[in-house]
Amino acid sequence: MKRIAVYCGASKGRNEIYVKEAYQLGKYMAEQGYELVFGAGSVGIMGAIQDGVLDAGGHAIGVMPKMLDEKEITSQKVSELVLVDSMHERKNKMTELADAFIMAPGGAGSLEEFFEMYSWSQIGIHQKPIAVFNINGFFEPLQNMLDGMITEGFIDAKYKNLAPLCDTKEELLETLENYQPLGVRTYD
């Protein structure tokens, strides 16, 4: 595992802990020898993770759709910038470049990117590690929803730990490193 894609918000959130912990995650990733693959934004959680990686001497690969690049939100600090034609191409390129996936706090776009990786893992498109950085308990409602889907029979119980919530950066990277594929979904 060399490159980790991080899905996260272009907003900072209301509590400064999100930006602080995102920065520390980026710094820790670089210190541990991992490269960042991300949405190339210079702001919010996205910018904080990038800054942590780069401040620690790491490598950050940003993937940005041309339409958003024209709005001048693209980071000018990235180690590498990949411009693509659409959001779909952005997700595909990030998936192609990454060996593992993290979701950090963000909004609808972060959830959409995360759930694509989650469902793709279930149906066998990839078997790469996925984990969730649960800063300040942010993703506990999401875990409750997934647990409810398991209870109601919409997600197989074997996927309970497909994308575990991790409260620290150390636990997060350890979880990715120790990932064991859970197998492809069966239909009955």
From TrEMBL:
Gene3D superfamilies: 3.40.50.450. This is Cytokinin riboside 5'-monophosphate phosphoribohydrolase. The keyword Amino-acid biosynthesis does not apply. Its EC number is 3.2.2.n1. InterPro entries: LOG, LOG_fam. Keywords: Cytokinin biosynthesis, Hydrolase. GO terms for cellular component: cytosol. Signal peptide: none annotated. GO terms for molecular function: hydrolase activity, hydrolyzing N-glycosyl compounds. It comes from the Bacteria. Belongs to the LOG family.
